[in-house]
Design a protein that fits this description.
The structure is a homodimer. Chain A is mainly α. Helices cover 66% and strands 7% of the residues of chain A. Chain A is built from seven helices and two strands; from the N terminus they run H-H-H-E-E-H-H-H-H. Chain A has a two-stranded antiparallel sheet. In chain A, strand 1 and strand 2 form a beta hairpin. In chain A, helix 1 crosses helix 4, helix 2 crosses helix 3 and helix 6 packs antiparallel against helix 7. The longest helix of chain A is centred in the last third of the chain and has 36 residues. Chains A and B meet through helix 1, helix 4, helix 5, helix 6 and helix 7 of A and helix 1, helix 4, helix 5, helix 6 and helix 7 of B. Chain A binds a DNA duplex through helix 2 and helix 3.
Amino acid sequence: MALEHAILVSLSERAASGYDLARRFDASIGFFWPASHQQIYRVLSRMQDSGWISSTVQTQDGRPDKKTYAITSTGDAELDRWAAEPSNREALRSDFAVKLRGFRDSESILIDTRNRKADHEQRLKEYEESQAKFYPVPTKLTGTDLGAWLALRGGIHSELQGIAWCEEILKHLEGRESR
Amino acid sequence: MALEHAILVSLSERAASGYDLARRFDASIGFFWPASHQQIYRVLSRMQDSGWISSTVQTQDGRPDKKTYAITSTGDAELDRWAAEPSNREALRSDFAVKLRGFRDSESILIDTRNRKADHEQRLKEYEESQAKFYPVPTKLTGTDLGAWLALRGGIHSELQGIAWCEEILKHLEGRESR
DNA sequence: GTTGCATATGCACACAGTTGCATATAATCT
DNA sequence: AGATTATATGCAACTGTGTGCATATGCAAC
């Protein structure tokens, strides 16, 4: 029951179609809650049935028709209810950690680790660009912007941690190899 | 397709019953791949059908019968195959980050953040105790032990990062409140 | 003696997420 | 003219996870 709320958050910022949301999920909210367009369309129908959102069909020229969804007052109340509810800690669930724990082949772990590190660095770069672009003066932020910035900070912390871990692994495994 | 492999890793260390595995998952492998006993029993059946594990029933006195599972050579081969396969990066999926991003009520976020911080600290303590107990001299570790230690290091990094994030949030939100 | 806990195994339903497929318009590129 | 890309929406099947329920033994505490 959290994709619903991620969508509500996104729609509370601005009304959007399923397609728009799918793109937003690829770029911003999706950093913290990834979702495919199929999933988004399915959940949007469900949310409309619950009365959390309403839709209007727009005819566009040069493009297919577009169903734009907007948050309703019921949806807004639900968002309030959810925000007040304590969030439960997401469990760590890492394929890679299990693989490390099993430790069969040092070579494939090294390759994996280097790839992961590059991946973390790439993501970190995206986050930092986003931070520089949207929140250049963090001390002046208030309300929603402050929250969004702090969420982004979480992403940045997470990538930095991932990189530190990879470096620690490389330090210990590459050292062993060369000996 | 990863609970299977987490179980294979665990069984490759020592044969076990579903019940044993459930307890191990609560304590060690489960740090990186949580699983309930129901899920474990279900997957064990599936794995036996695939020939990855074999079982023997043991009659115990004073306790219900026990089905002990051991890894087969097929299972070992599967573990090798899986270890060589590149692991895909687990996506960040955080309810809390979405809530921050939405930022409705600063008070409930503060409560949430303090709880999360305490939670991270608790988990960190467990990891550090485990580290002190099982891997007191990391530089001397080799093979499986080195891998298990590096996995644990990942957990430690992750908790430290979580704590740092919480502190950053508190710094910014508590500051705002008092003004 | 009965309540609760640890041991031990499992079914069934619900819900969430992934993947593959399907369809349609229109602009741009080759 | 044909291919690709972007816009736009959705169904269906499968897989994985979570939650509740069911059952059985035996020990220890109250």
